Automatic annotation (TrEMBL), chains A, B, C, D:
GO terms for molecular function: DNA-binding transcription factor activity; transcription cis-regulatory region binding. The lineage of its organism: Bacteria, Bacillati, Actinomycetota, Actinomycetes, Streptosporangiales. It comes from Spongiactinospora rosea. Pfam families: TetR_N. It comes from the Bacteria. Residues 16-76 form the HTH tetR-type domain. Residues 39-58 bind DNA. PANTHER family: HTH-TYPE TRANSCRIPTIONAL REGULATOR BETI, HTH-TYPE TRANSCRIPTIONAL REGULATOR RUTR. PROSITE patterns: HTH_TETR_1, HTH_TETR_2. This is TetR/AcrR family transcriptional regulator. The keyword Ion transport does not apply. Keywords: DNA-binding, Transcription, Transcription regulation.
Amino acid sequence: MSARAAGGDKQSFIEQARRAQIVASAIKVIAEAGYGGASLSLIAEHAGISKGVISYHFTSKSELMEEVVRRILKEVVEFVVDSVKDEASATAVLRGQILAVAGHMRERPAEIMALHEISSNMRAPDGSLRYGIEAAEEILRLLEGIYEMGHHTGEFREFDRRVMAVTHNAAVIDMFAYWATHPGHDLDAHAAELADIFVRATRKESPA
Amino acid sequence: MSARAAGGDKQSFIEQARRAQIVASAIKVIAEAGYGGASLSLIAEHAGISKGVISYHFTSKSELMEEVVRRILKEVVEFVVDSVKDEASATAVLRGQILAVAGHMRERPAEIMALHEISSNMRAPDGSLRYGIEAAEEILRLLEGIYEMGHHTGEFREFDRRVMAVTHNAAVIDMFAYWATHPGHDLDAHAAELADIFVRATRKESPA
Amino acid sequence: MSARAAGGDKQSFIEQARRAQIVASAIKVIAEAGYGGASLSLIAEHAGISKGVISYHFTSKSELMEEVVRRILKEVVEFVVDSVKDEASATAVLRGQILAVAGHMRERPAEIMALHEISSNMRAPDGSLRYGIEAAEEILRLLEGIYEMGHHTGEFREFDRRVMAVTHNAAVIDMFAYWATHPGHDLDAHAAELADIFVRATRKESPA
Amino acid sequence: MSARAAGGDKQSFIEQARRAQIVASAIKVIAEAGYGGASLSLIAEHAGISKGVISYHFTSKSELMEEVVRRILKEVVEFVVDSVKDEASATAVLRGQILAVAGHMRERPAEIMALHEISSNMRAPDGSLRYGIEAAEEILRLLEGIYEMGHHTGEFREFDRRVMAVTHNAAVIDMFAYWATHPGHDLDAHAAELADIFVRATRKESPA
DNA sequence: GATGAATGAGACTTCATTCAT
DNA sequence: AATGAATGAAGTCTCATTCAT
């Protein structure tokens, strides 16, 4: 086995390019064929390389999948954080986040699909879901941050932030899933409706 | 070919019992090992029978999976319909449905897990998701029925019923997923919070 | 195991009828699906009985196949013998046999097909063809009898009777095979041509 | 998927060698164990390789079988054509073809056996014989060519060329089959007798 | 760095056969 | 006499992984 496996200090340019190419192919194949259907053969074929190349650059299929998740998650989180950093009120952040994520989904459906496929299917050797908790956790914390802000500013009524975050996350992901399954569906209109739903669900009671 | 294939009205008692036993084992194995990990070997082992028995009672693995879905879906839909049929207002139906489903999930987690696994992973020979749209559609229609009622009675504000139903469904499923992943999580409290969320999201504006 | 296996003295009427029914179904299935495709399931299904019945009446699949061969061969040989017994000259017998066999083939194609399938495919446990030599041998002897008669009467020129019989048999069987594959082919015209061929191939030289 | 699938012009040397080796093993196993007995296990064992190697070089068992047929048929047809191309009269071609084919059969019995096994047993997914008509058709046309020549030159009497070709083909094949079953049989003597038979069956009537 | 080639485990399925009822 | 049920071996195929070149 060569030094690459250590993944350590310096990766050559070719090394980086190849890994990126393989990851990109993996994302597309997973998005199309599902986690279960994404064999190394298919990924290699999509990338126009031989199967052995993948094994050369990745210790195992698991490592490839983990790299895929890492890249997508990084991108998504960066995007989410970025999309709300300039909003002033918690309500605006809330609404902005939903609309922005919808925009991101429209631009990168394969990534979102692949992330979903892997995190709901990939398992550790012991049979447990590899990304059971952690994968969502990072995003849940970001969402909870929005609600904490609203609670702090007094914009939002009292509610369990974890439950709201789980619900929020589910609603956004399934908006995507529904859109992916129903090509004609209007994603932006859906997002706008969804934003309404959460604004109403979180805001303080109207004064009597 | 055995009598079952004819699909005729009467199956022997043993036939019914075996099919039920195999379906039950399949549900447990899928819930534990995931759709991809649920091999006929594992299912047979769990049922304490030989692999051939499954092939004897089911034409193919697909047929077994479809039977699993059919049984669970029937149970779930019956339950959902039953749980709300006596409520008077749409708001009560809405709240009641969420609480009742949570109760059902607490009682039958494996079924819900298996249904989710199969419907998000099983694919037709052509590569498309076997239960892509139709499976959810039935439930979405039921949920839309609740919102239609609320619109009719004037309890609910105007909103897109399909978006609300998709969101509602996602929220409930992910409540389950979160609970399944976090054993210590309080499912009933989550359900109560969720009911609040949807009641607020759907109700008419408070008068100024 | 019951007494039936011994095949001995007395078989009940039902026993006989069942065996005949199963043999008949086997013949049809083999003719349609080939020896390799003729599973006990298919045969049972065709007969409208359960698979177990076959095992009840026949010790093994081999025994069933042997019974099939026995019945068909008996019928064919009787027919062949019968069809030529009244002819006076060897030439007439030769011509008559070919025409008569063609007629028989038209009436019982499944039997001929099945006989051919079994004798060219069924193997003994040691891997050798079960009906390699004997099956054809009986027929070859009958054909040699015709040539011997012609040699005795002086109608036929000198030739190797075994080679002629093998050729004759092959020609007749392949006439059937060609007809079976080409439904529009004129079997009777073929037989007439074939008779001409063998009459010319066997007759004494025309005097100079 | 390996390069072979593309069907491209160039296969690596190893690829070609392996395919040839596997085809050769397949031929021997089929000749010995019959089409039905020729499992991939047996073929791999005979070749001294693992089962997976066959799957690596051939998409499916069908593809292997088709390659086997292609190679044998090519060889046989080339041989037949070659063996008669220098003969002057149709009668000489006829006699020469039979003797030459017998010689070829003596040299390559396994090929002939395998070709016969596959073409009479291999079936398409729909149950019809894979090589029902076309396989024989090519050879029948070649034989008809001989008769057409004899008709054209006036050497042969009038007869149905298709019937004669079918008979000729059957006679030659069964000569082989008889020899294969009866090791002591004199193949060359048989061929000589057979040539006599067809010369007599086709020649013009002796002048009165 | 990259590839083709090979492997062996494991998946699904079919099938002849056995057995209790 | 018949059946449904069960078995286990064997078959074909897929796949992640390893290795020599």
